[in-house]
Amino acid sequence: MSAAKSKIQEQPSSKFQMKQISEYFGKSVFGPKAMAEYVSKEAIKAVNESRNTGKPMDRKMADQIAEGMKNWAIEKGATHYTHWFQPLRGSTAEKHDAFFDPTGIDSGIEVFNGKALVQQEPDASSFPNGGIRNTFEARGYSAWDPSSPAFIMEKASGKTLCIPTIFVAYTGEALDYKAPLIKSTNFLVKNTVEVCKYFDANVNNAKVSLGIEQEYFLVDEELYHQRPDLVFAGRTLVGNMPAKGQQLEDHYFGSIPERVYNYMTDFEKEALKLGIPLKTRHNEVAPGQYECAPMFEEADIAIDHNSLLMDVMQSVATRHKLKVLWHEKPFKGVNGSGKHNNWSIITDTGINLLSPGHSPQDNLQFLTFFINTIKAVHDHADLMRASIATAANDHRLGANEAPPAIMSVFIGSTLSDVLNQFEQSKPAKSKSSKASEKKISVYRIPEILLDNTDRNRTSPFAFTGNKFEFRAVGSSDHCANAIIVLNTVVAEQLAKFKKDVDALIKKKVNKLLAIEQVLIGYVKASKKIIFEGNGYGEEWVKEAAKRGLSNIKTTPYALDAYNTKHTKDLFVNNSIFTKKELEARTEIKFENYLLKIQIEGRILGELVKNYIVPSAVEYQKKLIDTIEGLVRIGQTKAQNKHLYELAREISKEINDIWENNNKMVEERKKANNLDHADKKAKAYCDKVKPYFDKIRESADKLEELIDNDAWKLPKYRDLLFLK
Ligand code: ADP
Ligand code: MG
């Protein structure tokens, strides 16, 4: 968002992109250009200072910025302002206030000033806090984050000035994603710079880069509203695949339907105005599924932008009478959606540390960051798994179409060879640097690697030429969950690396040899996490078990990784979370899981009683009337055996579905009586959720048997293929 910060951002690659960007880019952002026009130089200096040092700005300056921001926003047509933040429930939060309190027809009192800009106290008792605050002391503050510039959000009914903020409890604990994300980034940058000094004394700073590919489904708005499961759970809880689904794979990269194309260009324009340039758009594998990817940016901004983009995409969809489905698995039987997090680190000297270099020495630096990342993922595989665990993502991970729940790293054949060679080469005996120069020349990684890296769509964490791609993140998830963990584990690993290397240097081992020796040890220690084969195959499940890798299929068990001493030490010792914050967040995750399953269970019950069984009974009555009529005209049972059979089958499914629904309700009651969120979540997972499949089986059978006109829910064939 901000260009005042020396920031990294991918450059446009085509003339069209350049034209679009120059026309719309940042039009709705209070960035450096707008600031220069509306705010004094002195105040801009104060913002930059506060940005760089994290220190609060003095009130006089804040008043000036607020005044400029307000004038800019009003000129652009905004009437209200809001502190914009990302509470732990996911998505974003806003509470709009008008710039003026009216006192008469043409007069009003100005209410937006420096104080209103810098800090607000939203009535925050209803945001998740994991026990940090009780409702009676529910004060929470949103505090301006000057590193993200304000922007104007346009929705159908008007324009609102949005001021990005962090959200903290009265007691000081963070209640959002932003504060710990920034801490984790700073932690990674600090340790990166220290390790870089081995190779280049000129490196003084670095940025974590992130490009987030977003997959989504589109459905017709009118049909969407006829499916309570889509409206309240974000996914279809019942429904059969039509005769033609994705088996021909003809949707993937196919031509984009015009209605969708119009939608895409529309939201891309809105995104551009907000400073989010998108670089790709295409059809995904499943019918009705699409993907877009922005150009990469600094991680914290990329994550803000992903939240903002999701918001924009949903609101623009309304104009096109569409609904975006973010759920990881909105439809059974076709692919689910993910959010691939492309991640790297780039130094202030312009070097992408995950890009193989031109010289052996550069390559040793590349290998340093490459191997340390692998080691970090290896040592914290369960935490990485936990970072992407949600009720929705469970449908995707391990469902033979998305990265499996087993954490592994894909690096491609070229780098596998390099690591093998590396591991087998014994550390050179000579301590002279000349010998070491010669020795490391084996790491002559082909320069063509970037275009040459093979792709493996089945890997949860893949190296793709000049970045790692954390592919297992769910499409509806807030990326900060995953990136806080990734940043932190790699940062901690780099600190260990530095310690190990320094210890050898102290023993008079040459620096490059010391680096090499430590890295060889890491390759040996972590190579079991590297997997190049098919992650969807049954063989991998067996092989992974043999290697001792975890395969944690469900969220409440995956989340236990947040409660281990290993994890607590990692986060608390490195000041990313306090113990209280970490415990609260974990509690929220357990709660979130059980609430999601609870809601799904309830909706399923409603579908059974208010939609499915009534449809079945209506059709069954027709059938019985017909059979009675046939008897009246003297037909025998044998002559109409299929009609009898059909009536019997429908009765059987009605019985089954009703009974399973009752049993599910009983299990829900038992689960609700347990005393801790984690126990409840596990009971919901093990005892309640299995009934979903049983109920669905009968529902889908009934859908198959019953007259189309009697079926009360739009079917997959209507939902998946947009008209
Ligand atoms: P692909 O689709 O083949 O994985 P792309 O080049 O289209 O590769 O990139 C996908 C995403 O990765 C985009 O959002 C892009 O901006 C991002 N990306 C590319 N290079 C980097 C990098 N060095 N660091 C972070 N993200 C990157
Ligand atoms: Mg990609």
Describe this protein with a few key phrases.
723 residues, 6-stranded mixed β-sheet, binds adenosine-5'-diphosphate, binds magnesium ion, 3 domains, globular, Creatine Kinase, Chain A, domain 2, 49% helix, Four Helix Bundle (Hemerythrin (Met), subunit A), Ubiquitin-like (UB roll), alpha+beta
Which SSEs are present, and which pair or pack?
Blueprint: H1 15-24, H2 32-38, H3 41-53, H4 59-75, E1 80-84, E2 97-98, E3 100-102, E4 108-110, H5 114-118, E5 119-120, E6 140-144, E7 151-155, E8 158-169, H6 178-196, E9 206-220, H7 221-225, H8 228-233, H9 258-273, E10 278-283, E11 289-294, E12 297-298, H10 299-319, E13 322-325, E14 339-347, H11 360-379, H12 381-387, E15 409-410, H13 413-424, H14 433-440, H15 449-452, E16 461-463, E17 468-470, H16 480-506, H17 511-526, H18 538-547, H19 555-558, H20 565-573, H21 579-632, H22 641-672, H23 677-688, H24 690-705, H25 716-720
Parallel strand pairs: 1-8, 15-16
Antiparallel strand pairs: 1-2, 3-4, 5-6, 6-8, 7-8, 9-11, 9-12, 9-13, 9-14, 10-11, 14-17, 16-17
Helix pairs in contact: 2-4, 3-4, 6-16, 9-10, 11-16, 11-17, 13-17, 14-17, 16-17, 21-22, 21-23, 21-24, 22-23, 22-24
The protein binds adenosine-5'-diphosphate and magnesium ion (MG).
Magnesium ion binds at residues 213, 340, 342, 464, 469.
